[in-house]
Amino acid sequence: MRRIARELAIAAAVFGVAGALMIAVLAACIALVPFAHYWIVCASIAAGYIIALAVTAFTIYIRGKNFQDGGDLPLKEIYGSEVGEEFSHGKIGIIVTDERGFILYQSEYLSQGVNLKVTGRNIAELSDRFKNLMENTSEAIPQTHIDIESRRYEVEYIKHGNLFILKDVTALKNKQRDYLNSAPIVAFARIDKYDELVTTTDEVTLSRWMNRVRDTLFDIAEGKYFIKSISSDTYMILGQFSNAFQINNGELDLISRVRNISVKGNEPLSTISIGAAYDYPDMASACDSAMRNLDMAEARGGDQALISHFADKSDYIGGKTESKASINRAKIRLLSKGLIDAIKGANLVLTMGHYNADFDSIGACLGIRAIAQSLGVNCRIVYAHENTEAECAKAFEEFCGEDLKKITIPYSEALGIKDSKTLIVLVDVSQPERLVYPNFISYDSDVDVAIVDHHRRSNQTFKRCVYDGSDSSASSACELLASYIENAPLHIDLPSRVATLMLAGTIIDTTRFRSKVSEPTFRAMSFLMNRGASTTIANQITKEDYQQFKEKIKFLQNTQKINGIICLAINPDHDEIVSPTMLAMVANQAMTISENDAAFAISRVSTTKVGISGRSNRDFNVESVLKKLGGGGHFSAAATTIESTDVNEVVSMLTDVLTEDM
């Protein structure tokens, strides 16, 4: 403010001097020039006025130019020498912009201390985060960290003055990095599905493979960290974070090395999963967290690591192979008993699936209701017609008939009756934001939660999760429920109509048994057939209509190819909004073409979002691709939505990720 006042005072002084000179000239003219020549006086007045304006404008220009040269005016001239020295000593810089974001001024610490000369540039060129701060409309704009030319700054924005205060925290960042690199880490590594290997592999082959795994693990650990075998299939690792794990191409070297171990040229027998925790205050809590992380890595399909920091989020690394189906009946029986015990202990069961519910979601809800009814526990399906696929809603409501209101419960009523003795069973979904009513519950809700899902789990868990029967190797949630009902410790009454809808759910999720099927899939479907499931009805209710067929063809006539094996099916009408289900159908249809190893369908799915649905064979990981764009799913089936209205922009983003991966 002092600077602005001074500039205005100088301009006013210049204008005053010029005006005084003009008045003096005018007085002389009046005294010396006859009345008949007063036109000369008028011309002199006009000329003097123009000269005064020109001198003032020139002065303002010169002063403004000096102002924009940056660093010409030290802070000590604005705030005083003591304040200026404190700013420099504290490594604090100041940037002032105009309303459009162009930098008018930068303090000497930025221009001289770190040689950052940015006056005259738009501040958004330094980082998009500056632009985001300027566009923030909230009253309290939070501090943020911004990296500029290899240095990190803690930035505070004062909106009414277009003022940015930058605190250089680069040294602190480097110290934190060094500290974390030397932080202690504890990890557990376990052979995936080892108990099945013991029963399905001959003893000599298994022994040779296990020896090679052990040799590999100890070779990698030599000179880097301590490793010890604590059971036949599990190893404990202790060391420093920077030395413990080498990450190459987005996965741990240890995991990729084990994945490629074979005996006598045969295919590798199994993979390995890792749970790790570092920078914890004590070893007991670190070990406990590492073991939980190992369980979660295995639950997501194995062949991956989950690493958590005490004060930060957890990170999944790996998961680059398709999950292998479990054929361990003992494990299935335990999972079945666990689900039955959880339901038996509740006064009321509310079950629900994901937003835009499909046959797998609705069929699995009916499976949960069948179990609850057999146990004498009241169960209602949280249902919304508008949040369910049209064909699925039609089939489900015809199935329920007059009992629809007894079988289902609307959102408002469900909220009113849920209490601490209610069990919420989530099927075909495990994230609150993706529920049929988003955030009906949260991770911190004080209510018991059970999960039956065939998608890979996120790194967050419910505070009161009493049961988790997830298995990412399964084709569908209906397959899992059919397996649990078949292996239940007591007879579960499964009506034929329920079995038919569960069969329909698996038909949809396996693209009519063309993808992600295994021996357990067919065994579960055989069980449903024995309980009266009708393949004729299931095929009939899952048929697509003519309009859907036309829509798919429209996408497939507008495709791009990457490396000849990846198909991008793009909606030619960039303004049309289609459902995520349609994108999945297009991607599935594209995978019926022989030369495609992977297919991605892209279109707008709302007024503000563009969706991508990916499908692949067992040689290409679409989950790892779409995870980089904020999505997730399975190895061979994944999806994401991106905040954008420009389809071409999203196609370009996807192409960049695919090119980088390949």
Structure characterization notes:
The structure is a single chain. The protein is of the alpha/beta class. The chain folds into five domains: 2-68, no CATH class; 75-174, PAS domain (Beta-Lactamase, 2-Layer Sandwich), CATH 3.30.450.20; 182-318, 2-Layer Sandwich (Alpha-Beta Plaits); 330-541, inorganic pyrophosphatase (n-terminal core), CATH 3.90.1640.10; 552-661, Diaminopimelate Epimerase, Chain A, domain 1, CATH 3.10.310.30. Helix content is 45%, strand content 20%. The chain contains 25 helices and 25 strands. The strands form five sheets. A six-stranded mixed sheet has the order 7-8-6-11-12-13. Strands 16-15-14-17-18-19 form a six-stranded parallel sheet. A six-stranded mixed sheet has the order 20-21-22-23-25-24. Helix 14 (359-374) packs parallel to helix 18, helix 18 packs across helix 20 (519-530) and helix 19 (496-509) packs across helix 21 (535-541). The longest helix has 31 residues, at 2-32.
Short description:
Helices cover 45% and strands 20% of the residues.
Blueprint of the fold:
Layout: H1 2-32, H2 38-68, H3 75-79, H4 81-89, E1 92-97, E2 103-106, H5 108-113, H6 128-135, E3 144-148, E4 151-158, E5 163-168, H7 170-181, E6 184-191, H8 194-200, H9 203-221, E7 225-229, E8 234-240, H10 241-244, E9 247-248, E10 251-252, H11 253-259, E11 272-278, H12 283-299, E12 304-309, E13 314-318, H13 329-344, E14 348-352, H14 359-374, E15 378-382, H15 390-400, H16 404-407, E16 408-409, H17 411-417, E17 422-427, E18 448-452, E19 465-468, H18 477-486, H19 496-509, H20 519-530, H21 535-541, H22 546-556, E20 559-562, E21 566-570, H23 580-590, E22 598-604, E23 609-616, H24 622-627, E24 632-633, E25 637-643, H25 647-661
Parallel strand pairs: 11-12, 14-15, 14-17, 15-16, 17-18, 18-19, 21-22
Antiparallel strand pairs: 1-2, 1-5, 3-4, 4-5, 6-8, 6-11, 7-8, 9-10, 12-13, 20-21, 22-23, 23-25, 24-25
Helix pairs in contact: 1-2, 14-18, 14-19, 18-19, 18-20, 19-20, 19-21, 22-23
